[in-house]
Amino acid sequence: MQTIFAQSVPGRLGVVPKETEKKAGDMLPAGLLRSAAPALPELSELDVVRHYSRLSRLNYGVDSNFYPLGSCTMKYNPKFTESAAALREFAGSHPLLPQLEGGEAHSAGNLEALWLTENLLAEITGMKAFTLQPMAGAQGELTGILLIAAYHRARGNKKSRIICPDSAHGTNPASAALAGYEVVNIESKDGLIDPAALAEVLDDSVAGLMMTCPNTLGLFEKNLPEIVRLLRRVDALLYYDGANFNACMGRLRVGDVGFDVVHVNLHKTMATPHGGGGPGAGPVGVSERLLPFLPGPRVVRGQDGAFSLDYNLPQSIGRVAPFYGNFAVCLRALAYILRCGGEGLSRASDYAVLNANYIRARLHGQLEIPYDRLCMHEFVCSASPLGEWGVHALDIAKALLDKGFHAPTIYFPLIVKECLMIEPTETESKETLDAFCDALLLIIEKARKDPQSLRDAPLTLPVRRLDETRAARSMVLTEDLG
Ligand SMILES: *Cc1c(COP(=O)(O)O)cnc(C)c1O
């Protein structure tokens, strides 16, 4: 397919700009003016429409097909949340407004939306308060660890280590290391944190534990009270990676269990479409003990009900993002939470769990399922048995593309060989789940009869199997137009 530049024909016009009375030179200083016209492609309106329509059809997204990418929660995000975020009163307001004299009154609606979102997240998770600043889950983790560090500093604790189980998401140890901690890995037992292994590494140097629950195997940690008790003994704090919160909304309030910090990925759980690195938000909630250290400024509501920004936070870790975080992402979450209500959120989680268990049950006996018991919103299976025919998880993933499905996550978590991690989410119908299972079962059958066809997949897509290593090592990011 040609780039839009390659389709350019000199002199061809799409739009004719309106003549204006003022020339650019009347409005801009001479130093800012171009000396030559920009090198834009010259095309008709129809050329442009066809080009981008064609491109959009090459795209794969939840709006077109099923997307069971484990750990990512690629659910359908209802369109009304887009309209809410695009409301002129929100989208048109300038982020500097609240900082101007009298600006807080003029942005009262925005401040109230932020305040409400924070408070609803606090209610849903059982935490004391939230900051909306972090712009991704991983940034939420870093913020959370910096809060833990601030807590220990304030108490004069000498702490140098953070514990991460081997079933943690890779961002957990990365965030702890970025914050200057030594990362201690503990092996899980039967897919869960082993309290005995935890007790073994616990001493006064441990600042905290980072836990994903349900973990990356889709399993719920059974020993939460025991784990909390062990950590409290050495004044270590508990971090809850809430990226998998889609499995337990309305069913588990992590604050009630005793966690001190949690991040929630709004772009996974609460109505912001993602993939391809789009805007996200990883708000962080804290328990009472960490309240003084939250990033500032904080939105507060005065006795008279008026909203303002509080900059007077002497123990705050400071800003972790400009302005107030990804405002539009928070607005989508607010619209989603208000529309679902408590009952709707619980139902979303219930169906997410039911759908994952439905697929697990249909695949039972066909692929290896290392933890073949009730799972949460996702589960992990292994293509190891197909190794006999020289077929790997990668081949199954590629063959699924030919059948019109996005591949599940593969080769993650690292603790299961040849793994496929499947997360259907609550928004898919039984018909879609069945079609996916049928396709997967056909592929498994083919592994025995015609394994080469799977190793050749995908056969029907615009590009075949890519040399991903070479693509990463020798990147070509521009096109030579000469
Ligand atoms: C996605 C994910 C993260 C990281 O979140 P980002 O928003 O991608 O930075 C952390 N932990 C788990 C378990 C995740 O699934």
Summarize, please.
With 482 residues, the protein is an alpha/beta fold. The chain is built from 17 helices and 14 strands. The strands form four sheets. Strands 1-9-8-7-6-2-3 form a seven-stranded mixed β-sheet, sandwiched between helices. Strands 12-14-13 form a three-stranded antiparallel β-sheet, with helices on one face. A two-stranded antiparallel sheet has the order 4-5.
**What's the number of extended β-strand segments?**
14
Write down the CATH topology of the largest domain.
Aspartate Aminotransferase, domain 2
Rg for CA atoms: 26 Å
Percent range of helical residues: 25-40%
Looking at CATH, the homologous superfamily of the largest domain is: Type I PLP-dependent aspartate aminotransferase-like (Major domain)
Main sheet: strand order: 1-9-8-7-6-2-3
Q: Could you say what the CATH architecture of the largest domain is?
A: 3-Layer(aba) Sandwich
Shape: globular
Number of helical elements: 17
Count of the separate structural domains: 2
CATH class of the largest domain: Alpha Beta
Category from helices, strands and their pairing: alpha/beta
Separation of the first and last Cα atoms: 18 Å
As a percent range, the share of strand residues is: 5-15%
Can you describe what's shown?
The chain is globular, with a radius of gyration of 26 Å. With 482 residues, it is of the alpha/beta class. It is built from 17 helices and 14 strands. The mean pLDDT is 94. It has helices at residues 24-27, 45-58, 80-86, 88-91, 103-106, 108-125, 137-155, 171-178, 195-201, 224-233, 254-257, 266-269, 327-363, 393-402, 430-449, 451-456, 468-473, and strands at residues 129-131, 161-165, 182-186, 188-189, 192-193, 206-212, 237-242, 261-264, 284-286, 298-301, 307-310, 379-382, 409-410, 419-422. The protein starts with 23 loop residues before the first helix and ends in a 9-residue tail after the last helix. A hairpin with a 5-residue loop joins strand 10 (298-301) and strand 11 (307-310). Pyridoxal-5'-phosphate binds next to helix 7.
